[in-house]
């Protein structure tokens, strides 16, 4: 596996505040389909990089950006235990920012022979679940698969709400929802699924019984191993079907 940390220039960055991005992909067999891997609210940390490595080992060019770069060079809740700061950082991010960041990531990947941006996937957790879904409708010619894992704000009273992007999507969306989640209550998940069906967008919403918000992360107290492994199974299935060359899959 090849790993690197890149200073990505975005419309919102400065020379002193690049979007530091962890990139990992197999050493051989490229070019590999790009997957944008968005962190959760506690911030960039080794757990996120390990998850990116796990996905990349299946044959993907995974890009995991530090999304708080506009305000801090780095942030890890589990080192600072400053939840107030986390709430500030999270609250200052939005779907349109994530779009600009993603376009910058894909522009870099376009110039890397190890990457293929013809069919791109995105996955977001918690605060970044809506970012992944938003891309599905905003970059429909490239982003053909998006997954939200215990994602928040999938339906919001705003013009950039993720559920409003589904009519423009050409790909597939997967929503993995915790059974108990005050940040993503059942009525919001049900409303999103209704919007998906109405928009005739391919995909599915799946409930994870016996779980709470954050169940996918092995280092968080809400971790449920069986549920987390199921989410990995779903991600691999989604990206394998949508990002790989159909001829290669058939062979």
Straight-line distance between termini: 25 Å
Q: What is the helix content? A: 25-40%
- Summing up helix and strand content along with how strands pair, one would put the structural category as alpha/beta
Find the CATH superfamily: Alpha/Beta hydrolase fold, catalytic domain
- Main sheet record: 8 strands, mixed
What is the CATH architecture annotation?
3-Layer(aba) Sandwich
Tally of alpha and pi helices: 8
Q: What integer value in Å does the Rg equal?
A: 17 Å
Short description:
This protein has 251 residues and is of the alpha/beta class. It has helices at residues 46-56, 77-80, 83-91, 95-110, 129-138, 186-198, 225-243, 246-250; strands spanning 2-8, 19-25, 32-38, 61-65, 115-125, 143-149, 172-180, 202-212.
Describe this structure in words.
It is a single chain. By secondary structure, the protein is an alpha/beta fold. It has eight helices and eight strands. It has an eight-stranded mixed beta sheet, sandwiched between helices. Helix 4 (95-110) crosses helix 5 (129-138). The longest helix is centred in the C-terminal third of the chain and has 19 residues, at 225-243.
């Amino acid at each position: 596996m090849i790993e690197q940390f890149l200073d990505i220039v975005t419309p919102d960055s400065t020379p002193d505040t690049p979007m530091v991005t962890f990139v990992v992909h197999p050493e051989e067999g490229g070019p590999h389909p790009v997957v944008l891997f968005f962190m959760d609210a506690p911030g960039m940390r080794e757990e996120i990089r390990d998850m990116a490595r796990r996905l990349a080992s299946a044959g993907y060019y995974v890009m995991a950006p530090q999304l708080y770069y506009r305000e801090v060079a780095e942030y890890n809740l589990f080192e600072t235990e400053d939840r107030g700061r986390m709430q500030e950082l999270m609250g200052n991010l939005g779907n349109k920012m994530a779009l600009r960041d993603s376009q910058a990531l894909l522009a870099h990947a376009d110039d890397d022979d190890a990457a293929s941006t013809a069919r791109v996937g995105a996955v977001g957790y918690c605060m970044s679940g809506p970012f992944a879904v938003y891309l599905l409708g905003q970059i429909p010619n490239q982003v053909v698969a998006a997954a939200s894992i215990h994602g928040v704000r999938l339906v919001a009273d705003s013009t950039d709400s993720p559920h409003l992007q589904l009519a423009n999507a050409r790909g597939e969306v997967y929503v993995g929802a915790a059974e108990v989640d005050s940040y993503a209550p059942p009525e919001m998940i049900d409303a999103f699924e209704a919007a998906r069906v109405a928009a005739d967008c391919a995909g599915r919403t799946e409930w994870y019984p016996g779980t709470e918000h954050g169940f996918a992360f092995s280092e968080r107290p809400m971790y449920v191993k069986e549920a987390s492994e199921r989410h990995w199974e779903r991600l691999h299935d989604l990206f394998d079907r949508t990002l790989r060359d159909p001829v290669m899959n058939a062979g």
